[in-house]
Amino acid sequence: MALPILHKSKNKVAQKQDMGFVDHLEALRWHLVRSVVAILIFAIAIFINIDWIFDHIIYGPMRSDFITYAGLCNLGQKLHMGDALCMPAPNVQMQVTQFGSQFMSSISIAFIGGFIISFPYIFWEFWNFIKPALTPREIKNTRGSIFWVTFFFLMGVSFGYFLLAPFTFSFLSNFKIGSLQALETKPTLDDYIENMVNIIIGTGISFELPIVSYVLTKIGLVTPAFLQAYRKYAYVIILLVAAVITPSPDWMSQTLVAVPLFILFELSIMISKRVENENLRKEATFFSK
Q1: What is the pLDDT of residue 249?
Q2: pLDDT tens digits, one per residue of 215-244
Q3: How distant, in Å, are the alpha carbons of 58, 150, 226 from that of 105?
Q4: What angle do CA 207, 108, 256 make, to 5 degrees?
Q5: What parts of the chain have a pLDDT lower than 70?
Q6: Contact predicate 168/246, CB 8 Å
Q7: What element of type H or E holds 282?
Q8: Which string of DSSP letters, residue by residue, matches 54-120?
Q9: pLDDT at residue 288, as a whole number
Q10: Is 153 exposed, middle or buried (0-12, 13-18, 19+ CB in 10 A)?
Q11: How far apart are CA 167 and CA 83, in angstroms?
């Protein structure tokens, strides 16, 4: 009687290990469903409080009392730079050109905000989906990945919102063509939200560079020597990325994006070196046994 029971238990283990394509799709479906539900919950909460959120968060970089304008100006004074860091706040009146624009913009703000707030949970669901395919050693090596991915993403989002967005909107709104004052800037609400999303999400993704370097070095696709050899090409790509994610064409805004990305790239090289040294030590330990 013991042999059939043992045989059945082995079959159950094999069935759990050898999930079919349909089983993977089913698992993925539920991870996606839970992620969407999380976004919806936060989106509904944002939509209920849309007036306060628009006035104090979405419209924040357009207000003269936004923390960045006063903060940078005070910093310039303390560094004896005069008014070099003082920026004029945007002085424009936004408009809508369609009846449903404000309502649809409220929906967009709610879902984008819901995605940003629920990003840690969404990545946690993604991690749980790929975790069964990893070995115990790989799981151990990627411990803390949820925290660090979330940390760099939110740091990039904060950088884009508190620094890049004010620089961008201040420059674009105060830039004038000609001396006759014949033109008046009246951006649409859709245009403003689109630029804001590009800035925030763009910097959030760009700040994941150290995480990408860590993962690629772990799986052997990237080495510190490779990153150092192609450093000059990487700098050119960073400048191009800075030009893409900054709607403003002024050099100051693009430099404001490029410099942190340069620092993150150098940090990526340091992380890659550390990971490679750990891999070499583990290999030496393994062969010594």
Answers
A1: 62
A2: 888 777 788 888 888 888 888 888 887 777
A3: 11, 26, 44
A4: 30
A5: 1-21, 24, 84, 245-250, 252-253, 279-280, 282-289
A6: yes
A7: helix 251-288
A8: IIIIISGGGSTT-HHHHHHHHHHHHTT-TTTT--PPP----B--STTHHHHHHHHHHHHHHHHHTHH
A9: 62
A10: buried
A11: 15
CA 84 to CA 86: how far, in whole Å? 6
**What angle is formed at CA 242 by the lines to CA 239 and CA 245, rounded to 5 degrees?**
150
Rounded CA-CA distance 183/42 in Å is: 40
Joined together, the tokens standing for residue 146 give: 């949820």
Longest C-alpha distance within the chain, in Å? 98
Q: Strand, helix or coil at 19?
A: coil
Closest C-alpha among 199, 192, 184, 189 to residue 242? 199
Q: CA 78, CA 41: separation in Å to the nearest integer?
A: 44
pLDDT of amino acid 7: 43
- pLDDT the model gives residue 115: 95
Neighbours of 238 (CB within 10 A): 20
CA distance from start to end of the chain:
42
* Percent helix, strand and coil across the chain, each to the nearest 5: 75, 0, 20
- Taking alpha carbons only, the member of 206, 205, 198 closest to residue 245 is 198
Question: pTM of this prediction?
Answer: 0.80
